[in-house]
Amino acid sequence: MATYKLLLLPGDGIGPEVMAEVEKVARALAAMGAARFEMERGLVGGSAYDAHGKAISEGDMALAMAADAVIFGAVGGPKWDGVPYDVRPEAGLLRLRKDLALFANLRPAICYPALADASSLKREIVEGLDIMIVRELTGGVYFGEPKEIIDLGNGQKRGIDTQVYDTFEIERIGRVAFELARKRRNKVTSSEKRNVMKSGVLWHEVITALHKREYPDVQLEHQLADALGMQLVRWPKQFDVIVTDNLFGDMLSDVAAMLTGSLGMLPSASLGAVDKVTDKRKALYEPVHGSAPDIAGKGMANPIAMIGSFAMALRYSFGLGDLADRIEKAIADTLDEGLRTADIKAGATTIVSTAQMGDAIVAKLNAAA
Ligand code: IPM
Ligand code: MN
Fold first, then answer.
1. Which are the contacts of 74, defined by CB distance < 8 A and separation ≥ 6?
2. How far away, in angstroms, is 199 Cα from ligand 2 center?
3. Of 303, 342, 311, 302, which Cα lies nearest the Cα of 108?
4. Hey, whose CA ends up nearest to atom 11 of ligand 1?
5. CA atoms of 153 and 155, how far apart (whole Å)
6. Where are the alpha helices (DSSP H) in 284-348?
7. What are 221's strand-pairing partners?
8. Predicted confidence band of residue 346 (pLDDT cuts 50, 70, 90)
9. Is 226 a catalytic residue?
10. Nearest to 309, CA basis, from 5, 26, 1, 12
11. 104-110 and 130-136 strand pairing
């Protein structure tokens, strides 16, 4: 049995609570002889700031570099609202993404039939939904320079962020999208704002050329990012794979999350390039939801996005797609039985705690083994 090295970074708020449920799932897989995990733990976000005065320590960065996969909870909270910008909780996550070169963020939005009524949209619009948002994660306005506030000296200040993309960045994220589409329903929708942004003009040009050159068998369409936001709530089932930049991807994936019933349902994978020598890739897995400080410590958080992110680690980092399928099936079965955390309650269902939801998923996993 192979051993996989995980670095667990629970972070802040509900992060530690949902991470505890992933540990249960990992222990259950080990107990059934399916896979073995060596789990180290580190600090990120506000908890790292409290301990080290920065959003992630050099020691934990080194552990992240050496891990087969980083499993990440969530960062941030009102406690750290006043800390200097460079060491704010989010800086830890952004450094991990940048230094590990995790340029491809996969955010699947799947609506489990049992949850169609928890969505704010009508059942017929979301039932059976299965889309994949591919968000560029190491470029664009998140990292572009200059990024600053300058004093104009006349009582005015100027805030500057820079949206910048080079050809190679657009090509490599485009390839991820086209490759995924080939294994799904063979359609890619590329999104930018070429009607107002030069980076959008280049994005459109590069994706169009890449498609023609390497992926003519895949159906490609383009939608302006504002129109795509509208189409996501009008008729989301028109989409298969959506590829877009860092900022649009951030916003559109939150919209897509609500289609599935709750932000508490959406997992994500952040992947680097495959190393030609070792055939391995750096990777970080995190729920799309944040640290939810309002419900932290109450045992109310939904652990499904976090457990789903661990399933993505099995699929994309360890080649254990069958085990990932089994975890996803255990989640679906648990929901079918009517168990719900508070965020996804609808109709005659049973409200359970974070730990009870985790236990129920583990029980389904064991029962199917
Ligand atoms: C996300 C989050 C992050 C982002 C924050 C926490 C920096 O919203 O992963 O979607 O904006 O990328
Ligand atoms: Mn976000």
1. 11, 12, 13, 14, 15, 18, 45, 286, 287, 289, 290, 291, 292
2. 21
3. 311
4. 250
5. 6
6. 304-316, 321-336
7. 189
8. confident
9. yes
10. 26
11. antiparallel
User: Where do the domains of the chain lie, and which CATH numbers do they carry?
Assistant: 1-103+272-369 (3.40.718.10), 109-263 (3.40.718.10)
Residues 102, 96 contacting (CB under 8 angstroms): yes
Give residue 345's pLDDT: 86
3-state secondary structure of 3: strand
Residue 347 has pLDDT above 80, yes or no: no
Higher pLDDT, 25 or 261: 25
Burial of 153 (0-12, 13-18, 19+ CB in 10 A): exposed
Pocket test for ligand 1, best of 90, 98, 288, 291 (most atoms within 8 A of CB): 90
pLDDT digit string (tens) for 199-223? Answer: 999 999 999 999 999 999 999 999 9
Determine whether 198 is an active site residue: no
Tens of pLDDT, residues 234-288: 999 999 999 999 999 999 999 998 898 888 899 999 999 999 999 999 999 999 9
Helix axes 354-368, 321-336, angle to 10 degrees: 120
Query: DSSP letters along 44-95, please?
Result: -THHHHHHHSSSS-HHHHHHHHHSSEEEEEE---GGGTTS-GGGSHHHHHHH
296's tokens? 């932290």
- Per-residue pLDDT, 286: 97
Answer whether 301's CB lies under 8 Å from 292's CB: yes
Look at the block and give the residue holding tokens 């230094």: 99
Cβ atoms 87, 93 nearer than 8 A: no
Task: Convert 41-75 to b/e letters by CB count within 10 Å (16 or more is b).
Answer: ebbbbbbbbeeeebbbbeebbebbeebbbbbbbbb
